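Tokens as discussed.
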């Protein structure tokens, strides 16, 4: 009976953890969409808190650190997917495509601001790239998507891929689900062994 109760408890906690992971993804995605136009720190903070909550739950379920460390990879998919899906979806839905030419660039550290010239004049908003190798050059022609409401930064049309971000969320959810199942099983086995080791000897 004790073993059956333990198995049921492990199964229930595993299901709860899987549900938590899916809830984190759903809530983070909704918050990201609702806060479009606000500082990006808002959806990032919500997603980070959710990822941390899942990691803590997995640690309690499995009683080991290695699965918790492995959960970092799907957490990155969840974080990037939820934060970038909202603005890219906005640009895909209502963004206006414009053919532009890069006429100048201003660099501060790893932040590159490319000045854009369209068919009707210079764009008020630059193309921003954060990193060491932007891959753009002065004189280059490209297509950008501009949010007519000005809530989302313009972006290179080739980089706007909401479907890819949804795929990242699916990978993150699949990874968390797999780790929760493994953690639930190994945690159950570990607790069963602990009970067997502490059980009183049978006297005949």
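Sequence:
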């Amino acid at each position: 009976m004790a073993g059956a109760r333990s198995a049921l408890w492990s199964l229930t906690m595993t299901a709860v953890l899987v549900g938590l992971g899916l809830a984190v993804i759903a809530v983070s995605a909704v918050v990201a969409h609702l806060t479009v136009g606000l500082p990006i720190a808002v959806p990032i903070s919500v997603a980070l808190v959710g990822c941390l909550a899942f990691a803590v739950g997995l640690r309690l379920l499995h009683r080991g650190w290695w699965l918790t460390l492995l959960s970092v990879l799907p957490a990155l998919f969840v974080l990037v997917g939820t934060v970038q899906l909202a603005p890219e979806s906005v640009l895909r839905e209502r963004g206006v495509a414009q053919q532009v030419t890069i006429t100048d660039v201003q660099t501060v550290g790893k932040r590159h601001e490319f000045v854009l010239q369209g068919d009707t004049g210079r764009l008020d908003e630059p193309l921003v790239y954060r990193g060491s190798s932007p891959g753009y050059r002065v004189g280059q022609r490209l297509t950008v998507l501009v949010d007519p409401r000005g809530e989302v930064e313009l972006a290179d049309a080739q980089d706007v891929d909401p479907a890819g971000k949804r795929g990242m969320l699916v990978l993150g959810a699949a990874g968390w689900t797999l780790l929760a199942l493994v953690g639930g099983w190994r945690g159950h086995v570990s607790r069963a062994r602990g009970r067997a080791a502490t059980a009183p000897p049978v006297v005949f």
